[in-house]
Amino acid sequence: MVFEFCPRCTSTHLQMENHYRLECLHCGFVYFHNVAAAVAVVLKFENKVLFTIRNNEPDKGKLDLPGGFVDPGERGELAACREIKEELGIDLDVSNLKYITSAPNNYLYKTILYKTLDLFFEYELDAAAIHIEAPDEIQSIAWIDPKVMDLDAIGFSSIRTVIKERYRN
Question: How many whole angstroms separate alpha carbon 126 and alpha carbon 82?
Answer without folding.
Answer: 19
